[in-house]
């Protein structure tokens, strides 16, 4: 079976709830690259609360991504992360 290519409109927020964890890293990398190129200062990634597999994937990728300065929980909403991007 051929994989269907799905186009996703990227905005200041990425909601990973609808994606399988195996696809999340590549989607997140593309989102970060796109927002960096567009000169965004901050991005928001919704991943889920608790022992979320998606949250762990997001935090691990943000930790090692060279375009990210810092990241934190979205205030009291620990089901999402705010990341600060470097300037181009």
- The class by helix and strand makeup works out as alpha+beta
What's the story with the biggest beta sheet?
Answer: 4 strands, mixed
SSE succession: EHEHEE
So how many helices? 2
SSE order and pairing:
Blueprint: E1 13-15, H1 21-37, E2 42-46, H2 53-64, E3 68-74, E4 77-85
Helix pairs in contact: 1-2
Description:
The chain is an alpha+beta fold and 88 residues long. It has one domain (13-85): Ribosomal Protein S8, Chain: A, domain 1. The chain has two helices and four strands. The chain has a four-stranded mixed β-sheet, with helices on one face. A hairpin with a 2-residue loop joins β3 (68-74) and β4. α1 (21-37) packs across α2 (53-64).
Write out key terms for the chains shown.
88 residues, alpha+beta, Ribosomal Protein S8, Chain: A, domain 1, four-stranded mixed β-sheet, 2 helices
